[in-house]
């Protein structure tokens, strides 16, 4: 996904990881949740979403039938992923192999960075499972609770002792988390409306209808109120950064190097070669002329 994001035109590493995180998240939701719930061909899945009126009723029938599968998925994929993150066997083996081919024995290995595009979509997907299944199959909640507790303990250790950030995210992954939670709530509301409709509980389905509207209004409020904070840095942060740079003794050396860090080739002076070899010698000598 990082390759696709770089091909898409993103330049900075943070934008590439943010775009890859969004791609992995929605691909995971579609490929694991909807493809499992609506098992069948791609055309059949698309036909379900094209018929908007019957989406809640079809979700109400299909989603509860896959509760046991997603409980097993949380145990197998969620618990094992946290254990794999703790042991990090593959990076350990890779570091041993890289150390054998290192030029110097005292050469320091590169400290890994936090794989945002891999871990954030996984956690958000388990959050979607918890929101959509908490009233359909409450048995999934203890397994999700164990996963979240393990993830908190393990990732806290990894952030403190293993990973080092390559850049300051400035909270720019939070809109992805917020949008995922809003989508999970809307999906849960649609499933609840479908279940009450299938069971012919018209009063209950009618009372739930305002919930998605209120959720979308809350999302719009958050988008207008808080999204600009994540799009651009606030003036307070920039002023604080400028003051830190003014007190930094290494900034003068940095600015001196910055002046010659990049020079446009079009503005460079042209240097003609003074070599008079056979390749650039004139065809006729001065005596012949």
Automatic annotation (TrEMBL):
UniProt key word Transmembrane helix: yes
Entry GO MF terms: calcium-activated cation channel activity
Signal peptide start and end residues: none
Domain of life of the organism encoding this protein: Eukaryota
Keywords associated with the record: Membrane, Transmembrane, Transmembrane helix
Transmembrane segments: 24-47, 59-80, 123-155, 181-198
One GO cellular component term: plasma membrane
Record bears the keyword Zinc-finger: no
Coiled-coil residue spans: none
Pfam family for this entry, one: RSN1_7TM
Domain CSC1/OSCA1-like 7TM region: 1-196
Entries under InterPro entries matching the protein: Csc1-like, CSC1/OSCA1-like_7TM
Protein name in the entry: CSC1/OSCA1-like 7TM region domain-containing protein
Organism: Rhizophora mucronata (Asiatic mangrove)
Lineage: Eukaryota, Viridiplantae, Streptophyta, Embryophyta, Tracheophyta
């Amino acid at each position: 996904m990082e390759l696709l994001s770089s091909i898409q035109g993103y330049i900075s590493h943070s934008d590439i990881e943010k775009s890859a995180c969004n791609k992995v998240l929605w691909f995971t939701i579609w490929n694991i949740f909807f493809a499992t719930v609506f098992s069948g061909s791609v055309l059949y899945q698309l036909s379900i979403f094209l018929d908007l009126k019957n989406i809640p009723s079809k979700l109400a029938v299909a989603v509860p039938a896959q509760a046991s599968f997603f409980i097993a998925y949380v145990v197998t994929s969620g618990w094992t992923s946290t254990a794999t993150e703790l042991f990090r066997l593959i990076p350990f083996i890779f570091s041993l192999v890289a150390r054998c081919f290192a030029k110097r024995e005292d050469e320091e290995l590169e400290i890994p960075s936090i794989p945002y595009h891999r871990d954030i979509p996984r956690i958000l997907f388990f959050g979607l499972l918890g929101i959509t299944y908490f009233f359909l199959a409450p048995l999934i909640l203890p397994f999700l609770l164990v996963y979240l507790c393990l993830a908190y303990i393990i990732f806290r250790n990894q952030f403190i002792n293993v990973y080092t950030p390559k850049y300051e995210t400035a909270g720019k992954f939070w809109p992805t988390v917020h949008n995922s939670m809003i989508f999970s709530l809307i999906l849960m509301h649609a499933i609840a409306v479908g279940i009450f409709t299938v069971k012919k509980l018209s009063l209950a389905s009618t009372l739930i209808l305002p919930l998605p509207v209120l959720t979308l209004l809350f999302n719009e409020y958050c988008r207008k109120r808080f999204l600009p904070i994540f799009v651009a840095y606030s003036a307070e942060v920039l002023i604080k950064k400028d003051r830190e740079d003014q007190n930094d003794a290494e900034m003068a050396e940095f600015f001196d190097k910055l002046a010659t860090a990049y020079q446009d080739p079009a503005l460079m002076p042209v240097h003609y070669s003074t070599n008079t070899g056979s390749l650039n010698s004139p065809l006729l000598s001065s005596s012949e002329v």
